[in-house]
Design a protein that fits this description.
The protein is an alpha+beta fold and 167 residues long. The chain has six helices and four strands, in the order H-H-H-E-E-H-H-E-E-H. 43% of the residues are buried.
Length: 167
């Protein structure tokens, strides 16, 4: 619990904008996922869940939480696309696997208020995409029997394009 509180404090610190005077730079450089890679991740995630017998939706958001790719399997529930996007957005926004966030923000914990952030969805199945130690996006999966299964498919989607990621 204390670790999650510290993580939220660090997140707040990093969320503060740096001014040109602080760093000496007027511009900030960053890396984000290419849309082709995002499509590969959702295809890999849906294929992994399908192989396990689950019909799901998978979504990838860029490092800013903007959706880049979405794929819904033919029999996935109508709620799954939005849920997948929200899981991915939550993972990139909080810079954490949503399964860990679900446990850390359960009712009665000091961090339970994070569940009230508009758009956040503290359910397993959202996984950040990291390259060289930096989060460049996130994938969310919805529709399998559990958040753990959703997360496993999300990780399989990342693994499907691992040879194209410069780790």
């Amino acid at each position: 619990m204390r670790g999650i509180a510290s993580a939220f404090a660090l997140l707040a610190l990093f969320a503060l904008p740096a001014t040109a005077g602080e760093s000496g730079e007027a511009l900030v450089e960053f890396r984000t996922l290419h849309p082709d890679l995002a499509h590969g991740i959702v295809a890999g995630a849906v294929a992994a869940c399908r192989a396990r017998g689950y019909q799901v939706a998978a979504a990838v958001v860029d490092r800013f939480g903007v959706p880049q790719a979405l794929l819904r399997d033919v029999l996935a529930g109508p709620h799954t696309p939005e849920t997948a996007v929200r899981k991915a957005w939550t993972a990139v926004s909080f810079r954490s696997d949503t399964g860990a966030l679900a446990a850390a923000t359960r009712t009665g914990t000091i961090d339970s208020g994070a569940r009230f952030v508009p758009g956040a969805l503290m359910l397993g199945g959202g996984v950040p995409v990291e390259v060289a130690g930096r989060i460049v996006g996130a994938v969310g999966v919805s529709g399998s029997p559990s958040g753990e299964e959703d997360a496993a498919c999300a990780r399989a989607g990342i693994e499907a394009v691992a040879d194209r990621l410069p780790f």
